[in-house]
Amino acid sequence: MNRKPFGKGMRRVLCALFALLLSGAAAEAADTLLPAMNVSGLRLIDSVDMAALEGREHIIDPANARSGTQTILGKNAFVMPGGPGAPFRFVAVRLGAGKGMKTGQAYVLRVEYPEDAPRSYTIYNSATETRRGFHSGATLGDALKMPYVWSNPESLAYPLSGRWEAWTCVFEPHPHYPDFPKPGKRNQTPADGFWVVIAVYNHENDPVSAGLALGTISLYEAPPHERLALRLRRPPAGLPQRHVFWREEMSDGLLFDQKNPAFDAKKQPDWYAAKMRLAKFLGFDTFSRDLLEFGHNQGWDSSRYGSNDWVYQSNIPWLWHETVKLAGQYGLYVLPMYEYCGSIGGSKALGPQKRAQTLGYKHKGPKGRDDYTHIHWSEKANVDVTDPDFIEDLRKILEITIADERENATFLGAWLRPRPAGMPISFSDRTRQRFDEDTKAQTPTTRQALQSNRALYDQYIRWWNLKRRAYFEAIRDYLRRPDVAGSDAALLFTGDPSEPGNIIDSNAIVTDDAARFPGVKTISPEQVVAEHLGLRRLTAPSGTWGGWEWQHAVPAADPQNYKETPGIFLTMPFSRQYSVADPEALEAFRAKDGLAMIYHHPLNEHVYFSDKLGYFVVDFELAGPYCMLAEARALANGDPRYIGYLYGNSLQRGFPQYVRAFYAAFLALPALPSRRLDNAASHPDVVVRAIPTPKDGVWFAIINTGMRPAENVRLSAKFAALKGLQNYLTGKPVSATAPLSLYPGQVLVWHAPGRAKSAKNP
After folding, report:
1. What is the C-alpha to C-alpha distance for residues 297 and 293, in angstroms, rounded to an integer?
2. From CA 754, how far away is CA 694, in angstroms rounded?
3. pLDDT (tens digit per residue) in 146-161
4. pTM score, whole prediction
5. Going by DSSP bridges, is the β-strand pair 596-600/572-574 parallel, antiparallel, or unpaired?
6. Taking Cα atoms as reference points, which of 91, 96, 88, 13 lies closest to residue 52?
7. What is residue 411's DSSP assignment?
8. Which residues are paired to 131 by β-bridges?
9. Residue 672 near residue 240, CB atoms below 8 Å
10. Rounded Cα–Cα distance for residues 365 and 375 (Å)
11. Which residues contact 453 (CB under 8 A, 6 or more apart)?
């Protein structure tokens, strides 16, 4: 439908209303499900009714795929049905060609779909080379049978709305991007428009899905960036803060592709600037990116300590410096991530010396190399945490990438995530000699003794874990120097190198209805919690096979050794609902200064293997309010201080109203110890946590952990005794006796002024 252009004054008013709708204040005021992004006041650039594709440039693949139109919930839809025998398939359409699109301008992409049946979708936006998936109902989302990893599948009966809904994202087109199909040379510009490709898995990988069903796909011009940014209200200065951050694994290759660039020379920071603007819109407060990937330099200058002789130089060594300056300008904290396995370079590099050695010493790697695992590309270098040389080695990297940049942005600390065998348990002669010296062994400890004497082996593992903690403490102490990141700097350590996270020890589907998967091993969510299966898996040694030493390549998490250690966080993996359902598991990973949790996405790498789609990785989210339900349950059951995301593809979200609402609430809470209040709400799914402060009053997080809206919720009568109670995000008074309505995963943040004693036993 054509829309008449608005006058400038009216457009400013509508843009302001658009921003207000997406603000934390609007989210907190919502009584039921949040409305999708209101695009009624935005300029419509292009639109296509997918049930009437004639005359539009489009592709249906395979060409003989079952497709057509069907009336669903009273509206015509383009469909590609699922069911047994359904193949991989997609539909693609070009939008925005000749419509005046430009780089640096934000746009809104809106995809209408029906929630009449469980369905999964993957959406590829060629203008940003991003893929994002979403799924509804009891679908799995991530593929059931991936080529390389097990995806921790979970199938739960999420309620379907029975209405037409909208997947919506904000994006900025790159200056250059590929055409479609068979993405190759980046010969397209915003003037050419871009392709929207919506794909679905075959039945084998998506057995619950009813297939693809689409309504209208529309493109709008978004409001200016300053109006899009979510206005966060943080706790008062002096109180510890919470943080939300992300890291991308497979997205930045376009920056290093000099023969086929997405950005003109010296313009690569523009890519990060667009990401930061998107992050500000979604509500992230912290920027992260990997500075070492499998140990290799990702855009910082190593010349101070030897350049290629120490750490191989990047072809864009100035990139990190410019990126940090951008983060500071956008008001984002910075938490750089390092896949550290020792410096990788020439004669001064420690990593390739492979000072950490296996217990079996079987030399099973290429050319007789002493490798821990069969993943040979991850075995080129390693760290022996018992060797003091590696403290100085990592310190020099942190000096260049953090200390030298501290004037350009505020650093939270550092995030370490070694890949397989990057920081393994070492059994070298030197390491065993250190063990003997520390334990005052009467006779030298041999490999044979460790293999035959279980008690000695267990003692060695306990000793190594404490040596690793001492290594982290030395790094933390450096970070906390006033000339580095300051006294509150944190060191986050993600010891799980897998993409999906080793969250449960079984090749089974966690489901609330085993009948959905006949002939397949299933586990109920209740069993996961009752038997603490997640915690058992997270803290158990890795399984191994074929004489390899995975149990030493990826040492088991030992969170119990960090309970009283300030400033160091062993991160807890999560993703599925069962991964945040066991309070004991979350409590086990709580350190002295709080809990850090990392959402692991399993990549879905090469699941859809087609040259028409190019290199395929995609991250999935649940549809509607359920896209933040895992985070809400984590807050209710464990109260994390840090929430991070390991994206396989680029940062993007499809239901931003719920993302923004959660982050606004989460980041408004002080990062102080909280307690879950018993019998605080009348609804069994509503959890209330209290966070007392020494002098700034008490914060309350009121959380709907259920899958359905919680209606007519009454709080304990003791809340009525609190004076000055207000909604912290809006600053408006609230009535503790009035009934509440919360959508699934909604978090209300209330505040009572005064000292902590006023909040006793509310």
Report:
1. 7
2. 9
3. 999 999 999 999 999 9
4. 0.94
5. parallel
6. 91
7. B
8. 124
9. yes
10. 9
11. none
